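Good morning,

Attaching, inline, the backbone tokens for the sequence recovery test we're adding to the shared suite. The designed sequence is right after.
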């Protein structure tokens, strides 16, 4: 009987480790945010063209096909960016605002260390199911491991 391949252990970050990855994470998230804005603009344009357009021989047909092809390429690129973050152990939460979570531990329990594009460092955390609304400031005396 063949042995099952072991699943990689989940990475848990300390605030210092999360901050050490920020230069790379920041670059990836910047690319994600740019791509997400472009993607949503193309989706809106495609919806408008479909609303305005008519029969397949219509003047909009070529543009519709071009936008659809661009959207498909954008989806592939987004998946690559998300996979790149995932390989680092980071979870993308909101592509338009650049919100990401780093799995961590605080006082012996699993939490997310939370960072949003534009913030100088990882300085917040939240419970696993609390989301951005439950963000709290990391305290200097908090026990992270």
């Amino acid at each position: 009987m063949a042995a099952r391949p072991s699943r990689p252990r989940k990475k848990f970050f300390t605030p210092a480790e999360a901050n050490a990855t920020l230069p790379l994470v920041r670059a990836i998230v910047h690319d994600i945010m740019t791509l997400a804005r472009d993607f949503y603009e193309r989706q809106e344009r495609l919806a408008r063209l479909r609303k305005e357009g008519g029969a397949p021989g219509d003047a909009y047909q070529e543009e519709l096909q071009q936008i659809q092809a661009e959207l498909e390429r954008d989806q592939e690129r987004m998946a690559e960016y998300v996979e790149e973050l995932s390989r680092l152990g980071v979870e993308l939460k909101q592509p338009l605002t650049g919100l990401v979570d780093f799995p961590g531990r605080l006082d012996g329990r699993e939490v997310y260390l939370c960072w949003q594009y534009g913030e100088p460092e990882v300085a917040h955390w939240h419970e696993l199911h609390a989301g951005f609304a439950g963000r709290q400031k990391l305290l200097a005396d908090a026990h992270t491991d």
